[in-house]
């Protein structure tokens, strides 16, 4: 399509989306994956991982001065997570909209947090907050060869 031709040589926008340990334990992996698939984003990488505390401290380093940082790292280290790279038009901002607000109680029904949780320290999913954070997070969680190049056969029915 014209869009794919126009984007030739450019990397389409990607976001780092992660199902947190509570989302995995509650059986919400499929539900979260389903929403990104149905919206029209392309899954480029996915893995389950029980992340170490140093890895999580690096992931959340911007929050290291916060009072909740230790609890946040303990929560994220309490079980496996499912880390993903989703690609497509406006993936970062739209991904955040699909997640809802940081505080689930402030999240609109219809968003992932607004539909499935009530506690900021148990908010089931992560999404990058900018393209720069997305690039940093993707390279922290995935090796380049783990990001899979493929073309969904339905792409021309999703992007004009
Ligand atoms: P996010 O980008 O919406 O995930 O929010 P932030 O980047 O600001 O914070 C990262 C994560 O830290 C959030 O998703 C929450 O799980 C947790 N968090 C943020 N603020 C608080 C807080 O005030 N208290 C607690 N307990 N956890 C928080
Ligand atoms: Mg954040």
Key features?
single chain; 160 residues; alpha+beta; four-stranded antiparallel β-sheet; 8 helices; 15% strand; globular; binds guanosine-5'-diphosphate; binds magnesium ion; nucleotide-binding; ATP-binding; nucleoside diphosphate kinase activity
Written account of the structure:
The protein starts with a helix and ends in a 19-residue tail after the last helix. A four-stranded antiparallel β-sheet has the order 2-3-1-4. It has 160 residues and is of the alpha+beta class. The chain is globular, with a radius of gyration of 16 Å. The protein is 38% helix and 15% strand. The model has no long low-confidence stretch (mean pLDDT 95).
Which helices and strands appear, and what pairs or packs with what?
Elements: H1 2-6, E1 14-19, H2 21-25, H3 29-39, E2 42-49, H4 53-59, H5 69-76, E3 81-87, H6 91-99, H7 112-116, E4 125-127, H8 131-141
Quick synopsis:
The chain is α+β, with helices and mostly antiparallel strands and 160 residues long.
């Amino acid at each position: 399509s014209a869009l794919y031709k126009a984007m030739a040589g450019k990397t389409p926008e990607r976001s780092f989306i992660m199902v947190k340990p509570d989302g995995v334990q509650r059986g919400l992996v499929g539900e979260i994956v389903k929403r990104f698939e149905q919206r029209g984003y392309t899954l480029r990488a996915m893995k389950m991982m029980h992340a170490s505390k140093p890895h999580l401290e690096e992931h959340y380093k911007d929050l290291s001065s916060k009072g909740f940082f230790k609890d946040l790292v303990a929560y994220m280290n309490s079980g496996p997570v499912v880390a993903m790279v989703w690609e497509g038009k406006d993936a970062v901002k739209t991904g955040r909209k699909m997640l809802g607000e940081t505080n689930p109680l402030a999240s609109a029904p219809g968003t992932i947090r607004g539909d499935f949780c009530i506690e900021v320290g148990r908010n089931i999913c992560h999404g990058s907050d900018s393209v720069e954070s997305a690039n940093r997070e993707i390279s922290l969680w995935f090796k380049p060869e783990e990001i899979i190049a493929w073309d969904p056969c339905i792409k021309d029915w999703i992007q004009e």
